[in-house]
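Structure, all two chains, one model.
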Amino acid sequence: MATIGLLEVLRFILSLVSPLPLKDDRGQHRSFPFMTVGLVALNIVAFVFAFYALPGLVGGEEVWQELMIHLLLVPTDILSGRGLGAVSIITAAFLHAGWLHLLGNMLILFFFGRKLEDVLGPVKFGLFYLLAVFVAGIGSVVGWAALPVTQGEIYSVGASGAIMGVLGAYLFMYSEQRIHTLLLPLPIIVRVPVWAYMLYNVGHDILGGLLEQQAQALGQTSTGVDVFAHLGGLIAGLMCIFLFLPAEILHYRHQGSRAVRSAPPESFT
Amino acid sequence: MSELLQVASLLQQGIAAARAGRRQEARRMLLRVLEADERNEVAWLWLSGVVDSPADQRVCLENVLTINPGNAHAQKGLQVLDRRAAANASTQERCPHCHEPVPQAGRTCPHCGQALVVVCPGCGDYVEVEETACPHCGQPLGDFRDRAQYYLGLAEAYAHQRRNELIAEATARAQEAAEDDPQVPARAGALYEEIGDTEAAIVAYRQGLKRHPDSSLLHARLATIYDRRAMPGEARAMYERAVELGSDDPAFLCRAARFYLKEQGDALSALNALVRAVQLAPDHAECHALLGDVYRAQGKRAQALQHYEKACRLTAAESPLGQRVRHQFSRLQPAAAEREAAPAGWAETVRHVSGLMLSPALAALANGGLRPQGISLGAWVMLLVASVGSYLWASGADVPRNPLMQTLFGKEGMQDGERMVVRATGALLWTASLITILGKV
């Protein structure tokens, strides 16, 4: 109980502010971020269509709800081979629970996504995003299915997992950068290292996961956030961006680290 | 015996003709005598009386004294000749070229045909050919003993002073004076080109070619004129001959290369000319620029880039040539750098293919309930198709010179068009396989 209490306090503290990234210290972008803008537009269009147009098209709320369940990510359906399978992982990644959910995700996607697209190009960024969607989805399935109470009988929706993948890739590429962050709801902009920003997000997710585990052990559920998708996406970003980077960037990073290691220690000069 | 009588008879006839004043007949008879008997003292003596020039007289009398040193008539005759010569030497001019006496008012020596006076290019007065500068206006004339160079210098001075009507004679005398030097007609032709008389230049070059058919310089000059006059057939013949004869002028070889490329589309001939030009002048910027053009036309980007880069180093950025090569260099550089820097090994290939393969693989795994044994046979087949598509896409986009592609397309790798086709095929296969997997095959 004490543990749960401490975790709750920590999560409360972390929830007091929502850091919104505004810009970093890198230079101008090389080209227009077609894929990033396209993904943002697709998410918005999908949300609007699913929640405003689809109910009227399918002829009623009940039918719409039945249809939407198939489009969401349900871990037990994936494990048992029911439903749309991998398609539901993709469709769930383009649906959101509400406007705030959508807006928050799209702001972060637009900020970090265009910087990654600068490096990878639109096609590779799109392929990386798709991979992050799959890894986040599978992470969500594995995580939620492992919990005792729910056994995965929940629905997961949103682009958060893939967006965490984008964040993880950005951390891999630009770990030395500082991000100008607006601490909502406070009108304060702080310049924080990117690793600190990521630490906040990861810490928030881990706390959420731990609390969910504890709550489910007590026969309850606690969080509305798919923390396992977040962590899965983050792992995808950190580990899989390596597979998409141009060779010269990898070479430069390797040379740079070698140069640092080969510099003579000051005590010998 | 009869021969002696014949000679004696001829001698008598010759002497009789000489006495009668029939000089030509006498000369003929006496020469026949001397043909039979060259040591006939009497014939030589009488011949000295019927020849025209004092020089011939002297020869005859000296021959008499050679045969008979005591012949008083011959001695007396030579004394008369010496007196006359001494008297003439004080009053008569001599040709500076052949040293023969010449009339005072003559412009050309009657013996050797050389000019005795020239027109001063500066003031237009007649000046003795021996003068190195005009005594009236001080215009430098040069040393007539330089012959061809002297007359060419005069011709150039006439052109400079716009006395074009005098150029022809000067250039003609120059070409006569140096029949074995092809530079002379080349300079003469160049002079005509300078004054705008292209027809005369062509004539001068052609006349030079008659004497020097193996002169690459004269062929080169004619090639340039024909090229300028848009006579491609004649120009090509001249260019080819000049290059074949081993022209050593890099600028001309560049002109030839440009002609081959522009008028004929003949990259091979252009390349031959340019390779020679670069051997002669390794730092000739235009040669490197043209070599870049030729290699670019042949699709050899790396070599084109190398020569454009060299031309960039040799030219100023503001010059027209400098701007042109820098523009071409910047157009080629990204593609060339990409191709040159593009990794070629299997490790890099696997890296790129893995990134592409993960999505279809995870989709198949998700459809199989996160169990590999749950993946259907159709999904495995589609994963195989996806792997082929991923490899083709990676080969077209990221690792164009991986070992298998080098085996198929050679060390140079794929051309741009081929890369597009390979990439498009890979994309199609990958997309089709992913869609099929998502459709739960």
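Chain B touches chain A through 25 residues (CB under 8 Å).
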